[in-house]
């Protein structure tokens, strides 16, 4: 078979409609499609070439609920069987009573004792249907109602950058600011510190990561930023 | 053929000067500004999000909903009455249909992607500027798209085929004027918008379409450049 031709570099920013590779030896993956002989981008993002597979890591876009994701969600309504929850995506999710708590809840009792409207929680998606009906659960390690602190939203495509490799980035911020940080896969971040200054610095740092997420050597840059800021205080 | 030289001195197949910028509206998921000559269009994309009223929902794929609006001060002199008009409704529809072949919303059933196109100044070719801005904004919003869309008007001014008419040409008094806005998708070789205001001969139309396709490719290059400029490494 004829050797294909790659038209882009690894980690290059590509736009929809851009031809990434020519020839049948390259395979289209996430965010790309094949048309005739060409592999074409269908999303704005960073192109990655792994062997002969070409894919795109999106740099923007809304969150799409996925089974197994741990997210931070907000209660928007209470109904007979449980809670309706906003997931920062196009779809609302349901948290049913039996998945919310192991307590026995008597029929007709007051559900606001567990979660009230506008409460935030760390929760896990345990099922997504083809029509994107989302079911949540509170049963699992680290899943809980959030109290105090502050909530910020970032672009969901930047979440892996904020967490870093094996949580390196987020643990670095945690250490520098002594804040508790929980990053939901849906782009909602919970920050809670001992004093407000720490929280503000954390929020600023996360915003900086979000803005410069496509820059190489980000970890060192953020480390420098944190060192400078924490010396000032 | 009395129209030998264009009123603003451009060549017959020359575009007006263009500026394009992406990410101009921080609150939107994706946004863009596209300016061609004295016609400027902002586009903001929100979503995919929950769609109401419910009967508009499509359980098979997401819905694209475009809205075209001219700002009250955007015209040449007269105040444009705010709110929807017969004209803006039509242009919203054709904008939607021009973009629909490229966007893929199969992953987002029952939801909507809202595209708001606002024109802050208009000097002919506003629907085309709007489509270009919307194309960039959709890409910026991370929507799956097969390609970008380039839109431009072609036409006849007193027997001469011209590209990208401005208002003084559209209002040309000494001869017949036809205005044909078009949108072109290069990778599919598809024309997704073609309207006609005035009379135009078949040969002239075909000649114009070729001109328009070439220009649309140029416009897409400009869009690409603007999209990539957002990610240039800050010094």
3D structure, described in words:
The complex is a heterodimer of chains A (233) and B (235). Chain A has 3 domains: 5-58, OB fold (Dihydrolipoamide Acetyltransferase, E2P), CATH 2.40.50; 70-146, Nucleic acid-binding proteins (OB fold (Dihydrolipoamide Acetyltransferase, E2P), Beta Barrel); 150-232, K Homology domain, type 1 (Ribosomal Protein S8, Chain: A, domain 1). The model of chain A has no long low-confidence stretch (mean pLDDT 92). With 233 residues, chain A is α+β, with helices and mostly antiparallel strands. The radius of gyration of chain A is 21 Å and the shape is flat. In chain A, strand 9 and strand 10 (82-86) form a beta hairpin. Chain A starts with a strand and ends with a helix. Chain A is built from 5 helices and 17 strands. Chain A has a 5-stranded mixed beta barrel. Chain A has a 4-stranded antiparallel beta sheet with strand order 1-3-6-5, with no helix packed on it. Chain A has helices at residues 97-100, 159-163, 168-177, 196-211, 218-232, and strands spanning 5-6, 13-14, 19-22, 27-28, 32-35, 38-41, 45-50, 53-58, 70-78, 82-86, 92-96, 120-128, 134-137, 145-146, 150-153, 180-183, 188-192. Chain B has 235 residues and is an alpha+beta fold. Chain B has one domain (18-229): GHMP Kinase, N-terminal domain (Ribosomal Protein S5, domain 2), CATH 3.30.230. Helix content of chain B is 26%, strand content 29%. Chain B contains 4 helices and 9 strands. Chain B has helices at residues 86-99, 126-140, 167-170, 202-229; strands at 18-22, 30-36, 39-50, 63-70, 111-121, 150-157, 160-163, 177-185, 190-194. In chain B, the strands form 2 sheets. A 5-stranded mixed beta sheet of chain B has the order 1-2-3-5-4. In chain B, a hairpin with a 4-residue loop joins strand 8 (177-185) and strand 9. In chain B, helix 1 crosses helix 2 and helix 2 packs parallel to helix 4 (202-229). The longest helix of chain B has 28 residues, at 202-229. Chain B is globular, with a radius of gyration of 18 Å. At the A-B interface, loops of A face strand 3 and helix 4 of B.
